[in-house]
Amino acid sequence: MKIANNDILKFDTLKFDRSGIKAFSIKTLACATLAMSSSLVFAESFTFDRPGESLGTATVPKGHVAWEQSLPSASYDEWRVDGEQNSQLTLQADALVRIGVADDLEIRVGWDGPVWQRNKDGADDHDIDGTGDVTIGVKKAIETNDDRMSWAVLAQVNLANGDDEFTEEDEIYSVASAISYDYSDNITTGITMKYDYQDGDLAWSAVPNIGYGITKNVSGFSEFVYRKQESEHYESMVNTGLIWMLNDRLQLDAMLGYSFNEQNPRYRAGLGFAYLF
């Protein structure tokens, strides 16, 4: 059978088109794989802010969302009035959502969550419940040009919009700075400085901390919290806990804390999880 020259041209063109489609598909797959790989590497370098009072220096990767949730946290306070012992037990399921809007910038929305509280005044006790305040903030990572050192700053406002029993009297405006230094693969030290302004009163907190590796997926941390508010006695507390990374995106954690104030002893405990979407 005789094949015309224009038929050969059509056949060759078809061959070329198929090879072009194949090459395009390979390139597209390679680009998608590279993008996914870089995204996973970025996610692996990310760390959550839970648990504790220290502020982490990492920001959420651009286009990702981190959800950090307590399950819940508990605190117990004791004090005396005219020789009579009073106490307060609080259970709180606070949450924090962090949204990555740039490579070094995140927006944060927090909620003190549902709260249950038992107050004991001498022989009398009563229970109350409600919801706490909402906080809005912006966190930015600062370039240090040092592979071992990282730095971040935070600006935040507490809206004081919770129920009467569980809200601040006025809005609290806060700025914080956190610096972290990796001594080795297993030891990290850092310090967080925080300043709060509320209705003309200024308070500041210093939180030196250390993190240490235990196993491949489990690490521990300890921190000392020192807080001083104008016209008030200083407050101090030691927190320690464990962090278990189930995978690159899911974390479970547990924390215990104790204050050194003999007149007003305070205990804290909590479980929580965090997930990176």
Strand order of the largest sheet: 1-3-4-7-8-9-10-11-12-13-14-15
Structural class: mainly beta
Number of helices: 1
Ranges where pLDDT stays below 50 over 5 or more residues in a row are: 1-44
Count the domains: 2
CATH fold name of the largest domain: Lipocalin
- Overall shape: it is globular
Average pLDDT reading: 85
Architecture of the largest domain, according to CATH?
Answer: Beta Barrel
Rg value: 26 Å
Measured distance between first and last alpha carbons: 62 Å
Helix content: 10-25%
What fraction of the residues are assigned to beta strands by DSSP?
over 45%
Instruction: Tell me about the largest β-sheet.
Output: 12 strands, antiparallel, barrel
Q: Can you count the beta strands?
A: 15
H-E order: HEEEEEEEEEEEEEEE
The CATH H-level homologous superfamily of the largest domain: Autotransporter beta-domain
CATH class of the largest domain: Mainly Beta
Keywords: Signal
Pfam families: Phenol_MetA_deg
Signal peptide: 1-43
Protein name: MetA-pathway of phenol degradation
